[in-house]
Design brief:
The complex is a heterodimer of chains A (358) and B (490). Chain A is built from 15 helices and no strands. Chain A has 358 residues and is mostly helical. In chain A, helix 1 crosses helix 13 (311-327), helix 2 (30-42) packs across helix 3 and helix 3 (45-70) packs parallel to helix 7. Chain B has 490 residues and is of the alpha/beta class. Helices cover 34% and strands 26% of the residues of chain B. A six-stranded mixed β-sheet of chain B has the order 6-7-8-3-9-10, sandwiched between helices. In chain B, a hairpin with a 5-residue loop joins strand 11 and strand 12. Chain B starts with a strand and ends in a 5-residue tail after the last helix. Classes of the chains: A mainly alpha (358), B alpha/beta (490). The A-B interface holds A 204-210, 213-214, 217-218, 220-226, 345, 348-358 and B 11-14, 16, 35-37, 213, 303-305, 320, 325, 327, 332-339, 343, 346-349, 352, 356, 359-361, 363, 378, 380-383, 385-387, 389-395, 421-422, 424-425.
């Protein structure tokens, strides 16, 4: 557990070192750039809050992706599922004015989850029953979701004045309020944390979670021991979609309050990186999402004060992922053990050749 | 002459090879025998360049071989056939052979020419090749081994090293295969045969080197030794306990009943043809057959992985968890190698239900259960949290058997459970199975190893081309049974 957290940070440090070389070559001061990055992400209370706000959708989509990936279901469609969830929330939100606050919140979040569940479930059904590879299924459904969003904000859900391609704002009752205004801190992040814990328990402390992980590690063996692959595939994709859709609803309820085109800047795709950095561990999703949120947030300050393009942040993100994955190879493990000591697993488990038969 | 001079190879804390000297002469079949973990395969890998030795060197005809380079070893004329087939599963057999030494000239890939050459060589050796453009993943284990042998021979090597090539061959194929080895010897090649079938080593080898725990325990010839002596040399002491003894079948109540079981594949080819048989409580029934005659599919039907085209499988008086299946490929089908031991244990549904209540997995309960089984079945592992892939083959099999027994089934179906296990581990697995049957359990043992079946089965069935036939209870002549396995009629 400890080492699984330490490793990504070591990778981050290595990425920073590589970036420093690039920055120095470009004539910028690496120290100044990274200071600005840190300042922008965590420099003061509002920066911290903004980082949290930026990372919240990544927690939801990251959980969605890690859940599906745990079963070796390559859900590339968290973005589409989030979008459909947001559409459901944005469609029902304006009509919740007469409900008590708590009920309205429950309804709008449930609508988002159902929307996402539907979108994930379709991909899951296609995989389970029609043998359509879920990678293709989810990517195609992403396109449909993006176009659906574009259509509803130009069509059925367009605001009454018909001046802007947005939906009507959701009712006040259905909005997650900001605490400590003007900061945008809200209950969404707390919900995300609770869900991360719930996903952890589901995966590692329930029979169903065990079956999902078993399917992910060895589908053939899972089949041999009576695990019902098609049903598990469908429900895992449905749940994964529900998590992403819930993220969309939280975004509508707490932050944007209405639908507009290009609502998601790619949270569902960034989530894949988040999930990989977290090694699919739901508890690791939170720090991983905050890391990516901080990079996003800090990049603006970096751009302002140092004149560095925010694209460079994406270069950093890419390097972090590549280096983390590289840390997993045998070539690195020797170096890794020298730096961090042997991982706990390796200490308990001698290599194969060390245990001859009795 | 192939020489290994004082080869030492260490994996972590284990000394796999400890200053091993080995020598094989042209025109010689040299058998290398030893238990699992004795270092046979490591030695082969060093000679074939797949592994670099820590100390020592391999020398062929006075020229040292470049360490750790399979390419250099191949160029020098050393070809190896590995124990687990190293084939590209999702490619055709012709494509697999394209990586061999069938030179098709021009540099362009000519699969037809390769197929023609392959068939010619196969015919010379008494092999039959699969139909054109058949994908390897759909072929039997025996066919894969043949394909590998053919690929190795395509390089026209001076030295051919074979790691347990015969374990998947039928008796009839075995004779032909041993003749093939003799032919290669007659051509002046060096043949190194790794095996733990001692009779085979004595039958075909000119000299025998025995490895034990990474050291050469003895160098001998068939003339001056026998199976018993060799077994003693391998293990270090004479195994006195009989592995097991076949008990005549008692007529308990039938537990497993198969009626007219038929399976057609997706192109309508008949894989299993109206199988009907019963297994009674307290009975061990063996199904003997050459791999690829429908056994894998039968096991899949019994495990519920596939559904029959027609016919019925009934476990009488049993709940759904009353059959435990031990599939033949433990690393692919039976275990999840990168999960922990206790997780592999609860893969079995009855055990999972035992440690699950209201959907929650009681992990500490599962860990305790696993610890208990590790002790009871003497599985050599640091503990329940060990990753299954860290266990040796024998211990993986103990884990599988332990899991099956602990599930408290009425019937155990086991497929080639002792393949690749050494004598001690085999005896232990057999004893466990016998104990289960003595306790009133029904056992269906499917194996291509006739000796194994004759040793512990009360009743023997033969499967050939998807059909099953019963043998006479008194029929114990391996040669005759071998003919039946190969598809002969009375």
């Amino acid at each position: 557990m400890l080492s699984s957290i330490a490793k990504p940070f070591a990778a981050l440090a290595l990425a920073a070192a590589l970036i420093s070389i690039v920055l120095a070559a470009l004539g910028a001061s690496p120290v100044g750039v990274f200071a600005a990055l840190g300042e922008g992400a965590f420099g003061n209370w509002y920066a911290c809050v903004d980082t949290v706000v930026k990372s919240t959708p990544l927690v939801f989509t990251g959980l969605a992706v890690s859940l599906a990936f745990s079963g070796a279901l390559w859900n590339i469609g968290a973005d589409g599922q989030l979008t459909i969830g947001a559409i459901a929330a944005g469609a029902i939100g304006p009509h919740l004015g007469n409900f008590p606050h708590a009920i309205a919140i429950a309804i709008i979040l449930a609508a988002g989850s159902l929307g996402g569940a539907l979108w994930g479930g379709v991909a899951g059904w296609l995989r389970a029953r029609r043998d359509v590879n879920e990678v293709i299924g989810t990517i195609m459904l992403n396109f449909v979701a993006v176009q659906a969003l574009s259509w509803v904000v130009h069509g059925p859900l367009m605001e009454p004045s018909r001046a802007y391609p947005t939906s009507s704002p959701i009712a006040r009752a259905a909005q997650l309020e900001f605490y400590f205004a003007p900061s945008r801190i809200n209950l969404g992040m707390l919900l995300a944390v609770v869900l991360a814990a719930a996903c952890y328990l589901l995966l590692f402390r329930t029979g169903a979670g065990f079956e999902l992980r078993a399917m992910g590690r060895n589908r053939r063996a899972a089949t041999f021991f009576g695990i019902r692959i098609p049903a598990l595939t469908f429900w895992a994709m449905t749940l994964s979609g529900a998590l992403a859709g819930l993220g969309g609803a939280v975004q509508i309820s707490a932050i944007s309050h209405r639908l507009y085109e290009k609502l998601s800047p790619g949270w569902g795709f960034e989530a894949i990186a988040v999930a990989l950095v977290a090694r699919l561990n739901p508890l690791g999703i939170i720090p991983a999402a905050v890391l990516f949120g901080a990079l996003d947030n800090g990049s603006q300050a970096m751009q302002r004060t140092q004149g560095i393009s925010p694209e460079l942040v994406q270069v950093i993100q890419g390097l972090v992922i590549l280096i983390i994955l590289a840390f997993d190879t045998p070539a690195w493990s020797g170096l890794r053990e020298q730096i961090f000591g042997a991982p706990p697993d390796a200490a308990a488990v001698p290599p194969v050749a060390e245990m001859p038969d009795a | 002459m192939l020489r290994a001079n004082a080869i030492t190879k260490r994996f972590g804390r284990t000394l796999a090879l400890d200053a091993v000297d080995f020598e094989a002469l042209p025109g010689e079949i040299h058998a290398l025998v030893g238990e699992n973990g004795a270092g046979k395969t490591t030695l082969m890998n060093v000679l074939a360049g797949s592994l670099a030795a820590d100390h020592g060197e391999a020398v062929l005809d006075g020229r040292p071989l470049q360490a750790g380079s399979p390419r250099a070893a191949l160029a020098a004329g050393i070809a190896a056939v590995h124990q687990s087939p190293m084939l590209f599963e999702r490619m055709t057999w012709e494509e697999n052979l394209a990586l061999g030494g069938f030179d098709t000239g021009a540099g362009a890939l000519d699969l037809d020419a390769i197929a023609v050459r392959a068939r010619a060589l196969a015919a010379k050796l008494g092999f039959e090749m699969p139909p054109a453009t058949a994908t390897v993943e759909n072929r039997s284990v025996a066919e894969r081994v043949r394909l590998e042998v053919l690929r190795a021979l395509s390089f026209n090597p001076r030295v051919l090293i074979l790691d347990e090539p015969t374990s998947v061959l039928a008796p009839s194929e075995l004779t032909a295969f041993l003749d093939l080895l003799r032919n290669l010897r007659g051509e002046g090649r060096i043949v190194v045969l790794i095996t733990h079938k001692l009779a085979e080593a004595i039958a075909v080898a000119d000299r025998i080197t025995v490895l034990r725990r990474g050291r050469v325990a003895a160098r001998t010839t068939p003339a001056e030794t026998n199976e018993k002596k060799l077994a003693g040399l391998m293990i270090g002491e004479i195994v006195t306990q009989p592995a097991a003894s076949a008990t005549p079948s008692r007529s308990g109540d039938p537990v497993l009943q198969i009626e007219n079981l038929t399976l057609d594949d997706h192109v309508g080819r008949r894989i299993l043809d109206r199988l009907s048989f019963r297994v009674a409580a307290g009975e061990i029934v063996g199904i003997a057959g050459v791999d690829g005659n429908g056994q894998t599919e039968l096991v899949e039907l019994l495990a519920g992985v596939r559904h029959p085209s027609s016919g019925k499988i009934t476990v009488l008086d049993g709940s759904p968890g009353s059959m435990a299946v031990i599939p033949q490929n433990r690393d692919l089908d039976g275990l999840i190698l990168d999960m922990r031991l206790w997780e592999n244990l609860v893969l079995a549904r009855p055990l999972r239900e035992q440690v699950t209540s209201h959907g929650w997995l009681n992990t500490s309960h599962a860990v305790d259960l696993c610890r208990e089984l590790i002790d009871r079945f003497r599985i050599r592992a640091p503990g329940p949290e060990t990753i299954a892939g860290a266990l040796s083959g024998g211990n993986r099999q103990r884990l599988e058997v332990a899991r099956a027994i602990a599930s408290r089934p009425r019937v155990i179906v086991a497929h080639n459970i002792c393949r690749g296990l050494d004598l001690a581990a085999t005896a232990e697995v057999h004893r466990t199975i016998l104990d289960f049957s003595t306790g009133g359990g029904a056992v269906l043992l499917i194996s291509s190893d006739l000796d194994e079946l004759l040793a512990i089965c009360g009743r023997l069935l033969i499967i050939s081309r998807g059909k099953i036939r019963e043998t006479n209870p008194g029929e114990r002549d391996p040669e005759r049974l071998g003919l039946l396995m190969a598809g002969a009629r009375d």
